[in-house]
User: What shape does this take?
Amino acid sequence: MIINEVMTKLREFRAAIYESLEYRADAIMDLLDALSSNSSAKSVIELSLNPLFRRNYSSVEKAISEFSANRITNDEKEQRRKLEQEHVTIIAQQLAALKERKFHLLAIDVTPQPRPFAQTLSDRKVVHAPNPALSNKPIAIGHEYSHLVYLPEKASRQTPPWVVPLSVRRVSSDETGTAVAASQLAAIMTQLPFANKLCLQVGDGTYAAVQYQHDNKQHENLVSVARLRSNRVLYFPPPAAPANAKGHPTWYGEAFKLKNANHPPASQEIATTYTSRTGRTFNVHLKAWDNLLMRGKKDCPMQDCPFTLIRIDAFMPNGKPLYRRPLWLIVAGDRRHEISIVDCWLSYAQRYDIEHFFRFGKQRLLMSSFQTPDSDHEENWWHLTLLAYCQLFFAAPLACLLPRPWEAKISPDAASSAALLSPSAVQRDFPRIIAQIGTPALAPKPRGLSPGRLLGLALPPRKASPIIFKSKKEVIIHASPH
Assistant: This one.
């Protein structure tokens, strides 16, 4: 892509984001630039020391607290939804057209934000958080956020794991991650410019739940791919009933137990090879069974929701299995037959790019580092980090490789190709990019010393909030530190 065209698209993206902000737009844009170029700050307030943030440190908190504010409503949840809709439209308009892939690829996952010591933070609950200590349970106290991202086409195996985040929402204590993900999909499927084209959405085993698959039936152009546990039981369609049959119709036929060694003959079998990013080659055997069913619930009937089941076995060149168990995937949707089972498997493999996004976001974009007692401000901050990552993605073709002296040698071809740069490499060169394209934000105007609070004014202490345990339906309230 021509450099001038990339610079024009980046300027248009930044200008559209700037125009969507009704309050403190200049401070928010400075904060986004400071976050996108962060190389040393370990906390959010340290971003005020970044040269691209031209304001005082107190403007950091004000920019975050008024990020989604607008003049239409005072309901902060509605304000965030309105701003999310505007930003989804802005981001989707900047996405490149497909070259080889015949469908648009989306991914959904949930990531935790542990806040064990935030005693006054509302709606804290027990969330899943991987723990490196084997003796500890993989749980934490805090919040969790559901992310819906777009997975762009990759030019080669060596292309870094970029994603384009579209939506982020907090999963409250009275919701499930799958219910929030279904609402995110429903909200953006009508906004995306390619919503009327074939879309494929991938997710881990959580998104094979009955409720989630049932909610996605409404999207005619959406195909869902999710991993299945190896102990699930599925069913073939029932045999045709006689014309004069009485009683309740039979919904499910012969059982298909994934854990059994012997399975019925597959409707498709494909043998192929796969080369990893590191150059290792594996032999892959795929089997597919079409028109299988899973048992539904009273409010989620699934007898009319057939799907395709895929089994993937990977082997080393010497014939030894690469993994102890096979990978099971379900492919649901009315248009699932338009996507080959190999593309479904490769698309699911690309799902892991969202894990790299979470890692980079928490380490370099301070995604989970905002220590606030206000849940609304925390949600604003997660939305800000989403925009900062998108800004890095659209700036990637303009970035130059700036390796550290101790880093591995880079080949000349890789150094000259902007498409091969990782998010951290783009973040390192972002100050130079901003110096070239400029910013729509206005420079601050010093106003002098603020009068501050009245002498003797004492704010009341915040009340401790309970920790919500869903399973036991009980709460634990910590004593107030005051």
